Amino acid sequence: MKIIVIGAGPIGSYIASKKGCEVIEERKNIGFPVQCTGLVSMNVDAFFKPSKKVVLNKVRGARITVPNGDCTVLKAKEDKAYVLDRQAYDQEIYEKALNKSEFHLGERYEKYERKGEQVIVHTNKKKYVADLLVGADGPNSLVARQLGLIKSSVYGFQVRAKLDKPQDVVELYFGNKVCPGFFAWTVPEGDGTSRIGLATKKPGQFMKKFLKELGVKKIIDSQAGVIPMGHYTNFVSEKVVLVGDAAGQVKATTGGGIVTGLHSAEILLQSMDKKNLEKSYVKTWKKSVGKELRTHWWMRKWFNGLNDKQLNQLLKVFKQAQLPLEMKGDMDYPSKYVLSLLTKPKVVFELLKTMVFK
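Now predict its structure.
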């Protein structure tokens, strides 16, 4: 089977590292520009474990702050997530893929067309003939647009800077005055430098205020990126499939998509040996990653329906109930934790009260 992959991010390169194919990438430098916080759960080890040289820090907890300033720290007994040098991590996957696949860097994908049982892929340099086209070209996917798929998005903006206070956990800030529709964050790199950012529809005005409140005086560098909200269920067509951010396979709660994207890519790879690749990919995906992403999506919709007073009350409920999030919570697969909450009548009652708390 002749496979063409569009995009040499971590998802596209992962597929290329497992299955011989040709990869078309518009950028000349793999992993640049960086468009990610670099905070990735250790579930990533099941797919492509980062080497020690690209792991800048490890974290095992988060401090959550709501609009009235109340906060709580959720901490596990062991490390839960990596803080990665994302450019270096992308390059590691790419370098491994070079042993199996051919990359065309600095070449821009333009369109595809079907011809019988094959797909003709057009770039700004030439055309390719393939049996399967894989769109792994990120949140602004051209392949997805050609399939008629357009998703709503939020826009993330992040800087690297030194903070006056020491930081040993990820810090998350919620509230409509801080960051409506999402949240703000600080992520420690481990050397006194933190990644400070937020995501919303119009991040500029909120970012300026957030940096001022944190007392940031000097910015080392900055990054920005698009985060798709929600996920497609119709991400396949005849001889064309989407994966990763291109398919909206992103957690609506956090905006992270590396683990869910790699998991989805693995399902796609396993489906390539099946008689009906497209049907197998979608069916298996919906039962695993899809189920979890639906949970993330409903959690996001619920959070976005809360006003600042309700967010304050929600944290109060969680603290009073002493919910063991650090034991059962999983930043990639939250369904088990949500189900565990629903088995606690008192918690359900308090959460319902929160919904009408004004």
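The first strand starts at residue 3 and ends at 6.
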